[in-house]
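2 proteins. here.
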Amino acid sequence: MKNTGFHIFLLFLLIVILTACPEPKKYPDEPQIQFEQVQLKDSLDLLGNTNKLYKLKFGIIDGDGDIGLKESDTTGINDPDSLYSNNLFTTLYEIVNGDSIKIDSSKQRNFRVPYVEPQGQNKTLIADIIIDIIFSYDGDGNLPYDSIYFNFYIVDRKLNKSNIQSTPVLKLDSAGFFPVILPK
């Protein structure tokens, strides 16, 4: 009888040990991004000028968590004159007569996502990133474009490029959230 109790205890202990620490899910080292939402609204800049705020939200998963640049990352490949002085790249398209027209590259909006330090043993980074893109009204109260969309991607510190995502086509003079309900 003592042996049966001991065996049950060992079996219970073995089950606890085997189920206590499941392996973390593995993700690729290349970042994976997913468009989530755009918010369009009027805003004021520091001088009181009315602008259109285009707030882009997307999710990211990076298996080794090496996303972002430090403020001090300004030499070598991160030199301010280098392509990789930024790590979030967008391409702006305007819709004209139903056709997508890529906007001149000098007007593209690229961003520098700040450095993120993964915590713990599992370095996988799962996060949402929100960026603000400002469109200014001209002197006549007009926006520079009618209907637009962006393609965008991110590059990690090892220069692994993510997949490319697109925003929906939106009229800049509209307001609200697009899509209205976030995807699950």
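next one coming up
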Amino acid sequence: MNTFPLTIKSNAFLGSWIEDSTNKQIFSTNLGAEIWLKSSHCSKIIFDWPNRTLAADQSRILISIDGADFYSQILSERNIQLDLDPDSDHLIRIMTQAITFVKAQTWNLSEFFLLKKISFNGQLTGAVPSRKNLVFIGDSIINGQKILSDSFDTSAHRPDKSWAYLLSEKLDFNNLRIAYGGTGITQRANIYPPTAIDFIWNSALNVSRPIDYSQPLAGVIVNLGTNDRSASSEEFSFSLKALLRELKKRFHETKIIVVEPFNGCFQDVFHKVFKDEKHISLIENNHWNFEISDHGVHLSVTGQQQAAKTLLPLIEEKLNA
């Protein structure tokens, strides 16, 4: 059996992946991070991908072969084996689905996705598409968390059905997510740390988030504020202004678009701050009423589709402006 290199240079890893060169492993703290592989004369691919959670939750990944719908695969100490027809070439697409059902402890790297090894026979190459990356910065809604109302475990999270993913596919961009459930702009968010300023620069505490310049950026979409309800208007305004400054430092001349929270939080603050903002665009919440999956803020599958349909022309217009 051959061993596939777990490196960014392999052109197999899309999104927020961090190389562990010492142990020849690769890890991610993000949902929606992807792996693209193309096989030739290959009958077997084996993934050594153990579950890395503290409690009973079982992490999951999503797998699609040759463009078929994604299916969910639980991570455990047992290897994952894909059996393929060696007489045909195949495209394998994998997406990180869920670490835990609620509040994954990723910031201190107690819980995360850790891929230890990919073994295969035949030929296997990285196959990330040569197209622009569209970056999404946000929380559980961008991740597609708790999207299935009848599921109360990690299967409820479906990043492949989120509006961010649907929009990226429609625009033919690679989807690059930097999003964590429960987080926000202020220290009053449901889950803190980190804040958005923390995680646009770092993947975890004291772990820098690398910038991949190999693929050009189509734009940066930010949807945050839903979890900051406990903050005062003054605190949110201060934190929003600070975030905008950091976004400009991080992404330089790339077009940045901020989408107001779907629950309508701090609309007055957004309008006041963006009144004098010349470099970052704002998409205002025009009485959106996307279907939710619970009694809180998470969107259902239909709600995610509604959000994608509503935001597609608005974002496309600003990206092309």
